[in-house]
Design goal:
The chain has helices spanning 16-27, 62-70, 91-101, 156-161, 172-185, 210-228, 250-253, 260-270; strands spanning 4-9, 32-38, 53-57, 77-80, 85-87, 107-115, 118-119, 152-155, 189-199. By secondary structure, the protein is of the alpha/beta class. The protein has a single domain (4-280), classed as Spore Coat Polysaccharide Biosynthesis Protein SpsA, Chain A. Strands 1, 2, 3, 4, 5, 6, 7, 8 and 9 form a nine-stranded mixed β-sheet that branches. Helix 5 (172-185) packs parallel to helix 6. The protein is globular and about 55 Å long.
C-alpha cells in the first residue's frame, strides 16, 4: 500500500514527466502511485517502466476518466490533480504528516493552488473559497461556510465509500464541487491548507480547453442547478458575484419553498452514490474525441 494515490484524467502526455518529478520533490520519504486515465495507452518513455505509474485508456468525458483512475487506487490517502501543473517542494509531505496526526476518520485537506499566476480560491478571508459565493453553485441545502473542493487530499476508503464523483458531470470542476457538497453534508472535517500546486491556465476556449469550457457551461452548470437548486427563481447567468453577503442564509435569500423534512430527505438521498456510476455514461466523449483525434473510436457506446 502506498501513502498517497495521485489520480487524474489526463490528455497532455508531454507534461506527465514534469508532474512525476514534482511529486518526488514534494512527497519526501512517503510513497506514492501516479495513475493517469485518458486516450493514451501508455505513459511517456521516461515513466513507462516505473512500478508506481500506470495509464488506463478511456475515451470518456473527464469526470468518467477521473473516476476510473481512482477506482483501484491503493494509497492510504488519495488526491486528484491536473496534468498541466506541478506540486511544490515538500508540500505533499507536509499534508500527509498533518493527516496522520489527526485521528479523525472523516477528514480532508482542502488545498490552494496557483492557476495562471493567481491564487484561484484565495484564503479563508476571501469569499472566493466558499461555495455559496459563486452564482452557479449556490444551494439552499448547504450553509455559507462550505468550502469548494477543487484540490483535496483525503482518506481513499472514505472517498470510495461516498461513491466518488457523479459522472453525469462531463468536466471535472463541477463534479469536484458536487463531491465536496456531499462530503461536507456527511460531516467530513475540512482543514484549509496553503498553496501546494501550480498549473497553467486556458481561459474560455483557449488552447485545448474548449471542450471543457463548453461542457461545463452548456451541460454541467445546468445539471448542478437541477440537482442542488431546482426551485431557484432568481437565476441570472450573467451574474458571477454574490446576490447576498456571505453569512446570510442561502435558504432565505433563495426563497426555496421546502420544509425542513423535505430538505433532510433530499440531503440523505444525495450524499452517497454508486461508485460504478461511471459505467452509466457514454464511453466516448464526443466534444473532444472525434476526428481528427488519432485513433478515436468512431461510434459512441456504453
Amino acid at each position: 500500500m502506498y501513502d498517497l494515490s495521485i489520480c487524474l484524467a489526463a490528455i497532455r502526455k508531454e507534461n506527465w514527466n514534469r508532474l512525476y518529478k514534482s511529486i518526488v520533490d514534494s512527497i519526501g520519504d512517503y510513497t506514492f502511485e501516479l495513475i493517469f486515465c485518458g486516450p493514451h495507452k501508455d505513459p511517456p518513455e521516461e515513466l513507462k517502466d516505473l512500478d508506481n505509474v500506470s495509464c488506463i485508456q478511456d475515451w470518456g468525458a473527464p469526470t468518467r476518466a477521473q473516476q476510473i483512475s481512482m477506482k483501484d487506487a491503493t494509497g492510504r490517502y488519495i488526491a486528484w490533480t491536473a496534468d498541466d501543473g506541478w506540486f511544490l517542494p515538500n508540500k505533499l509531505a507536509d499534508c500527509i504528516r498533518e493527516l496522520d496526526e489527526d485521528p479523525t476518520e472523516k477528514k480532508c485537506l482542502v488545498t490552494q493552488y496557483i492557476e495562471g499566476g493567481v491564487n484561484a480560491l484565495g484564503t479563508l478571508d476571501d469569499d472566493r473559497c466558499y461555495m455559496n459565493f459563486h452564482d452557479p453553485i449556490r444551494s439552499p441545502f448547504y450553509p455559507d461556510y462550505f468550502l469548494i473542493f477543487n484540490s483535496v487530499i483525503l482518506p481513499t476508503q472514505y472517498f470510495k465509500d461516498l461513491g466518488g464523483f457523479d459522472c453525469r458531470f462531463e468536466a471535472c470542476p463541477m463534479a469536484f464541487v458536487d463531491f465536496g457538497a456531499r462530503a461536507q453534508l456527511d460531516g467530513i472535517k475540512t482543514t484549509y491548507k496553503g498553496v501546494i500546486f501550480e498549473c497553467t491556465q486556458f481561459p474560455g476556449e483557449q488552447g485545448d480547453h474548449a471542450p471543457i469550457h463548453n461542457g461545463q457551461i452548456e451541460h454541467d452548470q445546468p445539471l448542478y442547478e437541477q440537482l442542488w437548486n431546482p426551485d431557484r427563481t432568481d437565476r441570472n447567468p450573467k451574474i458571477r458575484i454574490p446576490l447576498y453577503p456571505i453569512g446570510e442564509s442561502a435558504f432565505g435569500a433563495l426563497k426555496i419553498q421546502k420544509t425542513w423534512a423535505q430538505a433532510q430527505a433530499f440531503i440523505a438521498a444525495r450524499i452517497k452514490i454508486d461508485y460504478d456510476n461511471w459505467k452509466d455514461v457514454p464511453a466516448v466523449w464526443k466534444r473532444r474525441f472525434s476526428n481528427p483525434w488519432p485513433d478515436a473510436p468512431k461510434e459512441e457506446n456504453k
